[in-house]
Design goal:
Layout lengths: L4 H9 L2 H10 L16 H15 L6 E2 L5 E5 L8 E7 L14 E3 L7 E2 L5 E2 L15 E3 L8 H19 L7 E7 L13 H4 L3 E7 L4 E3 L4 E10 L15 H11 L15 E9 L3 E10 L2 H21 L4 E10 L3 H4 L4 H12 L5 E2 L7 H7 L6 E3 L11 E3 H17 L2
Parallel strand pairs: 3-8, 3-9, 9-16, 10-15
Antiparallel strand pairs: 1-2, 2-8, 4-7, 5-6, 7-17, 10-16, 11-13, 11-14, 12-13
Length: 415
């Protein structure tokens, strides 16, 4: 894969490789269900190190607040008053093991399957982006944990941008803001962010995948809980008396449209996804997530659930069912469609590097979506990682360098 010289220069003249390897070794796995913020105190350990690193790069105002957010500001060196923020998250996903990450470096990748511990194999036939990275430095875990490129590649890219700009004061720049957040992976990444400390006109999260991905659309996201309450009685005397909530929960899940499941949808297609079942024969709660790019589909998904409940309660009137629907996040495009100048800076930056943006709607969420609705328009930019949330996660060092180069070019283009 051909890359602009700026990406190579950043890799050679900054500590990008060393800092990324150091970051992924830090255990910052979020803790779902935690009542503290951040969900794990280990996230603050990385935050403290990032503050120290920023100060070592000459950013004396770098700080971490009591909630674990890291903030830093770089003044304009040419009188440009626009303020642009670069954001990445410190935590890693909870989907598989994230403690004790041992990064493995595969120099001059030759295009073959990468065999790791625990039977983990990263096959270019499945992970086709590997075929574009022959000759690159590929970084993986040892195969027993995730790697953490999501989103430590984003942090490394932003920090390397800062280092590069500090070494090149001749590059004219606007006001620059840096922010690193905790708990993005459990949906709490901006719960306590201080936008006054961010102090930016617009922002970019570096939390996407392969070059040259850019996202300014994402799912509308809702959670749904359906609680089915039956009638409990001694099973030895249950004939015509018991209503087993587990059986009706199973019927409920089975009646959800198969064609609207995550495993059978892609691109802009919506889905309903059961994510958890708790309870016993008397009462069961089915937890689901609803996803769609348009609000009308969310309304349709809610109605599908209500229709199934109507069928079940008609079959068994003694079955009591309650529902709860809650908004998680909304499609940032509703904000971005009137703020496309923010995307235009990214487009120009990527074009300056000799490429074209790959525009993809996110079949998921991003801190940028919530930030956009909080008044800080914030599309998402690639950071280089692939196969997030799994032991097969990998990243090419050169692609982190590209992300850093995009950040530098954005800075150059903001006038």
């Amino acid at each position: 894969m051909k890359r602009h010289q700026l990406a190579n220069e950043i890799i050679k003249t900054t500590s990008l490789k060393e800092r990324f390897l150091a970051y992924v070794k830090e255990d910052t796995q979020a803790v779902g269900g935690s009542e503290t913020f951040p969900s794990s105190p280990k996230e603050k350990i990385l935050g403290e190190k990032l503050v120290a690193e920023l100060k070592g790069l000459g950013i004396g105002n770098a700080e971490m607040d009591s909630n674990g957010y890291v903030y830093a500001q770089m003044p304009s060196n040419c009188g440009v008053k626009k303020k642009v923020a670069f954001i990445a998250h410190m935590d890693v996903a909870t989907d598989c093991a994230g403690e004790g990450v041992k990064p493995v470096i595969h120099e001059n990748y030759n295009g073959s399957a990468i065999k790791l511990n625990g039977g983990t194999v990263i096959d270019p036939e499945d992970s086709t982006d590997l075929k574009k990275c022959i000759g690159d430095t590929i970084i993986t875990s040892d195969g027993t944990t995730l790697l953490g490129a999501d989103d430590k590649a984003g942090i490394a890219a932003i920090m390397s941008m800062v280092e590069y700009l500090q070494k090149h004061p001749e590059i004219k720049r606007p006001e620059i803001r840096v922010c690193f957040t905790p708990d993005e992976e459990i949906g709490r990444g901006v719960d306590f962010i201080d936008l006054k400390k961010v102090d930016a006109d617009f922002a970019y999260t570096f939390d996407g995948g392969f070059p040259y991905e850019v996202n300014y659309e994402n799912f509308n996201a809702y959670s749904a809980k359906v609680t089915l309450k039956g009638v409990s009685i001694h099973p030895g005397y249950a004939k015509d008396k018991m209503v087993n909530a587990i059986r009706y929960a199973g019927k409920f899940v089975d009646m959800l449209p198969k064609t609207m499941s995550p495993e059978r949808t892609h691109n802009r297609e919506p889905f309903i996804h059961p994510v958890g079942i708790t309870g016993g024969s008397e009462e069961v709660t089915v937890s689901m997530i609803l996803r769609s790019f348009v609000p009308e589909d969310i309304d349709r998904e809610k109605q599908i659930i209500l229709n199934i409940i109507e069928v079940l309660t008609a079959e068994e009137p003694r079955l009591q069912v309650t529902t709860a629907f809650n908004q998680s996040y909304l499609n940032m495009y509703e904000i971005m469609k009137d703020k496309m100048f923010v995307y235009d800076y990214v487009k120009k930056a990527i074009e300056d590097l000799g490429a074209e943006p790959e525009i993809h709607p996110i079949r998921g969420g991003t801190d940028g979506a919530r930030l956009s609705f909080m008044g800080l328009p914030c599309p998402n930019i690639f950071a280089g990682g692939v196969n997030f949330h799994s032991q097969k996660e990998w990243v090419a060092l050169e692609n982190i360098g590209l992300a850093a180069a995009v950040a530098v070019k954005i800075v150059e283009n903001v006038k």
